């Protein structure tokens, strides 16, 4: 019998040696050993990742400028695909750093009062309450979120920032309602209108989209 | 998720209607959709490709070259070269991100070569011996790490949060389960599948380089 695949992944990520029974098996099974080696390689790389950075806006101007002199590349009104046009508006956000992804930062029990903290109120027919506030941590913005009385359900709670333009949103991460959490806000997001803090109940269905099951919500001051 | 419910939310003094959309259900193009638009020469393909991969290209150049100015030059070169060379990209037989990463490798290597030439000239000018150093190549571990960081940022929650806790904060599986209030089995499954997802991404990128 081969070693449980999830157990192999756990050894790879946690850097532990396999237990004696598994070690025996690994010595005689190339398949399991190869899988462990490969998972270890990925995990080792992933344990020291660079932070992703964005070029200045000027670079895009330079690219279109250089191409414009030789061929027609122009403004986005020439989108032919509606899907892509809509996507471009969203993807523009990624260019501004949202694609870099939000990190769940360490959680601590004490919640210092933040000057900008807002209350998160339940949506119609929902229960629960919470608060959210922006804290500045070495030049970056983080959102400190706490919640209580959220409707229980299968799945997990996810924190979102919705743009006041009503067209875009970005996921900040998973919230443990018992502990609360602090989430990195993508650079410039609040200035771009991502000010509506939304906590949703998400089923474990592998669908990354917002479940549309929002529980509590509030808007950060501009 | 078209026809999504409209939500009324308070945003300042006025009530505005916020449609429940994410970047995904607003029609965030998949890599394949971007690739098709790009190969067909649609402007939307170029701008979408830039938005999707400029961070990857720029970070890779920055980590390799150590200079923002050089990294921005390389980013410009890469997208200009990719757009002009789009006729050689076949969306049916390749991944656009991997293809663009390959171009980035070459542009960075060119930049190393230029630097080396400049050094040689300077050395000749002061009559220093030319060491004849081997041409500097792109460090594949840097490529791998940037590719993983880029992919990790795109992984959907809760997997992304779980992986970040494991990689950035060295949390054990049970610690992650406790912190996120998720069953241990869920955490185990997401970590394994997440590792495979990152591995597949690495394979695509290095596979592309092997074909070039
Ligand atoms: Zn085996």
From TrEMBL, chain A:
<dbReference type="GO" id="GO:0016989">
    <property type="term" value="F:sigma factor antagonist activity"/>
</dbReference>
<protein>
    <recommendedName>
        <fullName>Regulator of SigK</fullName>
    </recommendedName>
</protein>
<keyword id="KW-0804">Transcription</keyword>
<dbReference type="GO" id="GO:0005886">
    <property type="term" value="C:plasma membrane"/>
</dbReference>
<keyword id="KW-0805">Transcription regulation</keyword>
<feature type="region of interest" description="Disordered">
    <location>
        <begin position="1"/>
        <end position="22"/>
    </location>
</feature>
<dbReference type="Pfam" id="PF10099">
    <property type="entry name" value="RskA_C"/>
</dbReference>
<keyword id="KW-0812">Transmembrane</keyword>
<keyword id="KW-1003">Cell membrane</keyword>
<dbReference type="InterPro" id="IPR018764">
    <property type="entry name" value="RskA_C"/>
</dbReference>
<keyword id="KW-1133">Transmembrane helix</keyword>
<feature type="domain" description="Anti-sigma K factor RskA C-terminal">
    <location>
        <begin position="85"/>
        <end position="209"/>
    </location>
</feature>
<dbReference type="GO" id="GO:0006417">
    <property type="term" value="P:regulation of translation"/>
</dbReference>
<dbReference type="InterPro" id="IPR041916">
    <property type="entry name" value="Anti_sigma_zinc_sf"/>
</dbReference>
<dbReference type="InterPro" id="IPR051474">
    <property type="entry name" value="Anti-sigma-K/W_factor"/>
</dbReference>
<feature type="transmembrane region" description="Helical">
    <location>
        <begin position="84"/>
        <end position="106"/>
    </location>
</feature>
<feature type="region of interest" description="Disordered">
    <location>
        <begin position="201"/>
        <end position="222"/>
    </location>
</feature>
<keyword id="KW-0472">Membrane</keyword>
Automatic annotation (TrEMBL), chain B:
<dbReference type="GO" id="GO:0006352">
    <property type="term" value="P:DNA-templated transcription initiation"/>
</dbReference>
<protein>
    <recommendedName>
        <fullName>RNA polymerase sigma factor</fullName>
    </recommendedName>
</protein>
<keyword id="KW-0731">Sigma factor</keyword>
<keyword id="KW-0238">DNA-binding</keyword>
<feature type="domain" description="RNA polymerase sigma-70 region 4">
    <location>
        <begin position="152"/>
        <end position="199"/>
    </location>
</feature>
<feature type="domain" description="RNA polymerase sigma-70 region 2">
    <location>
        <begin position="50"/>
        <end position="117"/>
    </location>
</feature>
<dbReference type="InterPro" id="IPR036388">
    <property type="entry name" value="WH-like_DNA-bd_sf"/>
</dbReference>
<dbReference type="InterPro" id="IPR007627">
    <property type="entry name" value="RNA_pol_sigma70_r2"/>
</dbReference>
<dbReference type="InterPro" id="IPR007630">
    <property type="entry name" value="RNA_pol_sigma70_r4"/>
</dbReference>
<dbReference type="InterPro" id="IPR014284">
    <property type="entry name" value="RNA_pol_sigma-70_dom"/>
</dbReference>
<dbReference type="InterPro" id="IPR039425">
    <property type="entry name" value="RNA_pol_sigma-70-like"/>
</dbReference>
<dbReference type="GO" id="GO:0016987">
    <property type="term" value="F:sigma factor activity"/>
</dbReference>
<keyword id="KW-0804">Transcription</keyword>
<dbReference type="InterPro" id="IPR013325">
    <property type="entry name" value="RNA_pol_sigma_r2"/>
</dbReference>
<dbReference type="GO" id="GO:0003677">
    <property type="term" value="F:DNA binding"/>
</dbReference>
<dbReference type="Pfam" id="PF04542">
    <property type="entry name" value="Sigma70_r2"/>
</dbReference>
<dbReference type="InterPro" id="IPR000838">
    <property type="entry name" value="RNA_pol_sigma70_ECF_CS"/>
</dbReference>
<keyword id="KW-0805">Transcription regulation</keyword>
<dbReference type="InterPro" id="IPR013324">
    <property type="entry name" value="RNA_pol_sigma_r3/r4-like"/>
</dbReference>
<comment type="similarity">
    <text>Belongs to the sigma-70 factor family. ECF subfamily.</text>
</comment>
<dbReference type="Pfam" id="PF04545">
    <property type="entry name" value="Sigma70_r4"/>
</dbReference>
């Amino acid at each position: 019998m081969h070693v449980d695949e999830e157990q192999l992944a756990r050894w790879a990520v946690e850097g532990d040696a396999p237990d004696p029974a598994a070690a025996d098996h690994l010595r005689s099974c190339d398949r399991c050993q190869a899988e462990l080696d490969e998972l270890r390689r990925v995990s080792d790389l992933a344990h020291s990742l660079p932070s992703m950075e964005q070029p200045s806006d000027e670079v895009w101007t330079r690219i279109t400028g250089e191409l414009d002199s030789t061929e027609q590349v122009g403004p986005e009104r020439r989108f032919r695909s509606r899907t892509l046009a809509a996507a471009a508006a969203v993807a523009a956000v990624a260019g501004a750093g949202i694609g870099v992804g939000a990190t769940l930062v360490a959680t601590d029990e004490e919640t210092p009062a933040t000057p900008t903290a807002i209350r998160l109120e339940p949506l119609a027919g929902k229960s629960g309450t919470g608060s959210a506030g922006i804290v500045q941590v070495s030049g970056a913005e983080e959102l400190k979120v706490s919640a209580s009385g959220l409707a229980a359900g299968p799945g997990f709670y996810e924190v979102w920032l919705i743009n006041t333009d009503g067209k875009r949103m970005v996921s900040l991460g998973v919230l443990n309602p018992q502990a609360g959490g602090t989430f990195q806000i993508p650079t410039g997001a609040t200035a771009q209108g991502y000010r509506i803090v939304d906590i949703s109940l998400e089923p474990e269905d592998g669908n990354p989209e917002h479940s549309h099951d929002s529980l509590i919500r509030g808007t950060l001051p501009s | 998720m078209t026809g999504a419910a409209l939500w009324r939310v308070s945003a300042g003094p006025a009530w505005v209607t916020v449609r429940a959309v994410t970047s995904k259900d607003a029609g965030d193009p998949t890599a394949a959709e971007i690739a098709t638009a790009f190969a067909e020469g649609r402007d939307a393909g170029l701008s979408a490709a830039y938005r999707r991969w400029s961070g990857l290209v720029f970070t890779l150049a920055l980590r390799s070259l150590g200079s923002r100015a050089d990294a921005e030059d390389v980013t410009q070169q890469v997208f200009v070269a990719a757009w002009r060379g789009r006729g050689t990209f076949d969306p049916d037989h390749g991944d656009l991100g991997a293809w663009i990463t390959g171009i980035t490798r070459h542009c960075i290597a060119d930049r190393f070569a230029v630097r080396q030439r400049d050094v040689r000239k300077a050395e000749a000018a002061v009559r220093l011996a030319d060491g004849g150093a081997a041409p500097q190549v792109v460090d594949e571990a840097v490529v791998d790490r940037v590719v993983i960081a880029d992919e990790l940022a795109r992984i959907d929650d809760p997997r992304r949060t779980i992986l970040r806790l494991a990689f950035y904060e060295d949390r054990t599986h049970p610690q992650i389960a406790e912190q996120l209030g998720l069953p241990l089995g869920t955490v185990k499954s997401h970590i394994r599948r997440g590792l495979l997802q990152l591995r597949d991404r690495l394979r695509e990128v290095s596979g592309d380089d092997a074909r070039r």
